[in-house]
Amino acid sequence: MTTRIAFSVAGLLALSAWEQLAVAQVAEFPIWLEELRIEAIMSGISAATVNAALTDVAPVERIIELDRNQPEFKLDFWDYLDRTVSDWRIEQGRILLQEHRALLDDVASGYGIPPHILVAAWGIESNFGQTQGSMPVISSLVTLAYDERRAAFFRAELLHALRILDEGHVRLEDMQGSWAGAMGQLQFMPSTFIDYARDGDGDGRKDIWNNLADAVASAANFMASAGWQPGIIWGREIRLPDTFDTDLEGLATRKSLAEWQALGVRTIAGNDLPSVDIDGSVILPSAASEPAFLVYENYRTIMRWNRSHLFAISVGHLADRISGKPPLQSSRVSSSD
């Protein structure tokens, strides 16, 4: 017996750290899963839903690989913009804006979010519903909840996902999404769904996967709740003076348009800034001084959706292009120039 144990320990030590962790997790997972089942049922989720969703689930190594290998480098602004604000996406956005005009206008009247902003977010998040992710959300969230790196966050998201199933908004086999559990045409996390999803057509379900009325109403409700200000644009491309103090760049610095005007900031055409009593911040999304943007409160609202300047500028610029505004006027400068 002693020899057998010693051999087992020696064999375990010969494994890589990842393999050792995997061996331990395989042994502990059934216990963890049973504890999760009990927690879910005690929180009010039906046993039938819990059993259906959690039967035969197991950690998926590919999910952990994706989580561990997210790109840490800063994407080049122009390459990102080329990808997110493509000619196809602009043209498709214009077509869909007209095709769904009645729905988008109705949602805009109820929530105050302009149709072209909603269409732009829809396009960037899922290619207008065409690319929603093909991974089972429950399997992804089980994997990430069991993993120690962000266990508490993803355990909460998993319980929210089980509640969504229990309420009958989507069938288990249709609950597909990204590797991290983002779902539907606007890529909501389950907690975002619970807080902000809406039944846009009154059928009693909130189907953000297949029902555009639900998806658009949910997105509009999120943005309205996040503080969208009707009648104010997200921001504009600007021209900075050669003497601009780059320490003033960033969302931490807010100044009135009159103050920015006094510092030499102008529209991209070289004209004076509008005489409007609102505050703005200067954003420089690339390593160069161009392009530069003066962004307002609605930009911050977009950032609450995804805390990335590249994402927020792309949503705003795609919305501008869909509504007929021109491309950015700044010159593209390569990193080798």
Q: Tell me the total number of β-strands.
A: 7
User: Which outline best applies?
Assistant: elongated
Give the C-level CATH assignment of one domain.
Answer: Mainly Alpha
The end-to-end span amounts to: 70 Å
CATH superfamily of one domain: Bacterial muramidase
Strand content: 5-15%
CATH architecture of one domain: Orthogonal Bundle
Radius of gyration: 24 Å
Count of helical regions: 15
Low-confidence stretches: 1-12
- Please state how the strands of the largest beta sheet are arranged side by side: 4-6-7-3-5
Secondary-structure element pattern, one letter each: HHHHHHHHEHHEHHEEHEEEHH
The pLDDT mean sits at 90
Descriptive overview:
By secondary structure, the chain is of the alpha+beta class. It has a domain at about 1-70 and about 135-185: Helicase, Ruva Protein, domain 3 (Orthogonal Bundle). The chain is about 50% helix and about 5% strand. It has helices at about 1-15, 15-40, 45-55, 60-70, 75-85, 85-100, 100-110, 115-125, 135-145, 150-165, 190-195, 210-225, 255-260, 295-305, 310-320, and strands at about 135, 175, 235-240, 255, 265, 280-285, 290-295. The protein has a 5-stranded antiparallel β-sheet. The protein has a two-stranded antiparallel sheet with strand order 1-2. A hairpin with an 8-residue loop joins strand 6 (about 280-285) and strand 7. Helix 2 (about 15-40) packs antiparallel against helix 3 (about 45-55) and helix 7 (about 100-110) packs parallel to helix 12 (about 210-225).
